[in-house]
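Students often ask why we bother encoding 3D structure as a string. The short answer is that it lets us treat folding as translation between two languages. Here is a chain of 517 residues written in the first language.
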Amino acid sequence: MLSAGLRWLNGEIRMSGLKRGSDELLSQTAAVSNGGIMTPKPGHKENNNDAKKAKLDRNLNNPSRVVHVRNIPNEAVETDIINLGIPFGRITNLLLLKGKNQAFLEMADERAASKMVNYYNNSGVPVIQGRTVYVQFSNHKELKTDSTHPGSISTQAALQAAQALSNKIETQGGPNTVLRVIVDNQVYPITLDVLYQIFSRVGKVLKIITFTKNNTFQALIQYPDVITAQAAKLSLDGQNIYNSCCTLRIDYSKLTNLNVKYNNDKSRDFTNPTLPIGDQGLDSLGIGGIPLGAFALSPVAATSATLGLGGIRLSGQQSFGGCVLLVSNLNEEMVTPDALFTLFGVYGDVVRVKILFNKKDNALVQMSEPHQAQLALTNLDKIKLYGKEIRVNISKHQVVQMPKEGQQDAGLTKDFTSSQLHRFKKPGSKNYQNIFPPSATLHLSNIPTSVSEEEIKDAFQNTGGEVVAFKFFQKDRKMALIQMGSIEESVISLIKMHNYQLTDSSHLRVSFSKSTI
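And here it is in the second language, the structure alphabet:
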């Protein structure tokens, strides 16, 4: 369990509180640890040249409970260092020197430190945020903090997290190289590539198999060794991939090896890139020659730790591409920037829309987040709109440019940055829980009591479609379901009727529904 002082940001856990200075150690006689003064015990000198010497001397033969980690990336944070040491025992002190690209980790005893150093120099490859780092014993016998100087908030939070994780290790049992991962409260699509990007931050991922069981997205992920798998479980279990949703539940699998037959978007063996693509259905995926359906994976109990609202930020969002979608095969006589704003706005906040001046059956739609673009692509690609099956793809463009002054545009480019109709501005909005594919049934809300069923049905009939059924919610007459004659009619009705003015002070809210009447 991690402390509440941690939060996920830009792909790693960040500590709330003060940023620590990073240039003190090895540039002064005394060094700062936890915001205080760190002094070696008498008889154990570690001078200003220690870091330089470490590059030549692995210092493996002089055990100490203080471990020196070098070549760490500039973006490294305290928990990155903790993740290296936590599988080997209790951590009692920590010093991160970003400016020197190194850190010091004090273990509870020499035995734990020796296990860590021996493992990383003989078996495992220590990795922090994709960079290989080097682990050795320090010349320090301990990191001693002057009690007159208060500890750094970030380091104290990291040490509290380390203690909590150590306690968890002592009670969980059953480590294995294969993890089973369940994604709870899945609002946005999660792909194999997304999981790879997250789990490879901890260490080298060998194989991944993904599947859906009991309407829940699940995966099996194999690491080369138990230590890396353990670190991944401890650091990622209970984390949200996205804001307030898509929560990772991680447990050890009973399997010891994954037999991946095909490399595709459902399964991947990163050690064997020559595997065929194969059939991407569930029956094609086997574990030790046994179909996946033979395994019943029970959900992992949720942890009580909350690490923040931001979710795991994927570095560069590489797996999803950018925020801009290319929409093609549009009916250029009917489609407008406002129509695309309303339709794509069901799946995210649309920033800009540009219908191409010289090819008006094509448009660029810029969403505010890459995962919103992916969500829109997943739900709107190949739907029928005004008699044509539209295609939606990720665009090579990173942003939609507004026309330059004097440039001919004919109103085909529109900026919606300040629109009041964005559905997802509020973090954790309930709208995230009500995102569904286009369907013939629409959910209506914000209906005044003065507006009758007939008035609503007539308004929808005027969009050109047929109203098949209508029903007010029994417990809340401000909401209703309306069923159109087809999905295409429903899509057009949503475009025309969302934000439709029912009275002087009431505008209708329309979204796709998973229900039927």
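Translate back mentally: The first strand starts at residue 6 and ends at 9. Keep this in mind for the problem set.
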